[in-house]
Amino acid sequence: MDVCKSIDEIREVVKSLKSQGKKIGFVPTMGALHEGHLSLIRQAKEKSDEVVVSIFVNPEQFGPNEDFESYPREMEEDLKKCEDEGVTVVFAPNRDDIYDEKKYIRIEVDELNRHMCGGSRPGFFEGILLIVNKLFNIVSPDVAVFGQKDIQQFQIVSRMVYEFNHDIELIMAPIERANDGLALSSRNKYLSAEEREIAPGLYRALNYIENQILNGVHTPSLLLKHQKSELEAKGFKIDYLDVFDEKTLQPVETLTEGGEYILAGAVWLGKTRLIDNFLIEL
């Protein structure tokens, strides 16, 4: 497995692979790899000949009071996991390789970031699009795999690929969960033992709401309100818990037959922010 630190290095490696007729799969990550990330790598292997994984903690997607400095960094362990999964190349650049001190050009997002995670994290998705756009231009993959857990990210990146005419196939891999339903996340490391016991409550609330919707509750406002109260009573602080249109990412009050929706929630448990979602087709 090659480990490339510079942009020139990764471009040369990918150019060589493509000259051999290889199809390139790409999994962008911020490291601290867990089973969820490994599932993305396996999906990429199914859809391509060679897999590139990037490991870069992107400062542009962290707010002023967020956890950029404390975000888990486990490069040695991550490289071992990538090698075990048969990854061809890891791209692990330094910050100075990716960003100049002064940036004159930015990407803006309209409407798609108004709700869900974008509603409480201003600049978050602009930071994600900035790094993903850069990585797509640097790596030039044929296929890129993202996880459903970050569903808003996937939808916004999909729109960028469409509007910026990237010649890349995007794949959304399903959420990997612990045995008790908790969506796997690098930030789960922040949970105390007591919080880890409580954490699957978000999954259970979403699962309950989904079942009620599939059983005919198509105006779920009272259902959502009740579940918010239940979660708060267990110690969660609610960021959002709602049903959104799958394409526009706007909240939906009344669900209709044939509609495609995202039932999603974000909560704080102590200092840890947890997100999860279910895709619903009626």
* Proportion of beta-strand residues: 15-25%
Q: Report the CATH superfamily of the largest domain.
A: HUPs
Q: Rg, please?
A: 19 Å
Please tally the helical runs, counting DSSP H or I stretches of 4 or more residues. Answer: 10
Low-confidence stretches: none
The CATH first-level class of the largest domain comes to Alpha Beta
Total beta-strand segments: 9
Tell me the overall shape.
globular
User: The biggest beta sheet, please?
Assistant: 6 strands, parallel
Termini, distance in Å? 45 Å
Order of helices and strands: EHEHEHEHHHEHEHHHEEE
Helix/strand-derived class? alpha/beta
Query: How does CATH name the architecture of the largest domain?
Result: 3-Layer(aba) Sandwich
Our count of domains comes out at 2
Mean pLDDT: 97
Strand order of the largest sheet: 1-4-3-2-5-6
What is the CATH fold-level name of the largest domain?
Rossmann fold
Oligomer: single chain
The portion of residues assigned to helices is 25-40%
